[in-house]
Design brief:
Largest sheet: 5 strands, mixed
Shape: elongated
Strand content: 15-25%
Strand order of the largest sheet: 1-5-4-3-2
Number of strands: 5
Radius of gyration: 21 Å
Oligomer: single chain
Structural class: alpha+beta
């Protein structure tokens, strides 16, 4: 009888581990870009962004936010299309029909600051 009770308790605890959702980003607000705590965010001028227009140094602007997508250039499923607006405003291309909705979450990883008005 004791073995049955202990087995049931263990099964309930294990089941709870799979059912109760856990946050993998403890201490971070939902929607906060992952690099916010690692870097100090700042604002950039269009001129500053325009200097980062190459495969090895690629920044883009999307809706007034600046992203350093250099680490992603080689992984971009659309190949060099990501370089079409390197150093400039990529808003139109970013919101094109070729991008799945997951891209909108993924881009937060590369957020470095805002564009100066």
């Amino acid at each position: 009888m004791d073995i049955v009770v202990i087995t049931l308790i263990v099964l309930v605890v294990l089941g709870a581990l799979f059912v109760i959702p856990r946050s993998h980003k403890k201490g971070k607000a939902k929607g906060t870009p992952s690099n916010v705590n690692r870097k100090t965010l700042r604002t950039y001028t269009k001129e500053e962004v325009s200097q980062h227009n190459a495969r090895k140094d690629c920044w883009i602007i999307v809706k007034g936010k600046v992203y350093d997508v250099t680490p992603y250039v080689e992984e971009h499923p659309g190949g060099d299309a990501i370089l079409n607006n390197a150093g400039g405003d990529s808003t139109e291309g970013f919101y094109g029909p070729q991008h799945a909705t997951r891209v909108f979450d993924m881009v937060d990883e590369f957020y470095i600051g805002d564009l100066k008005p």
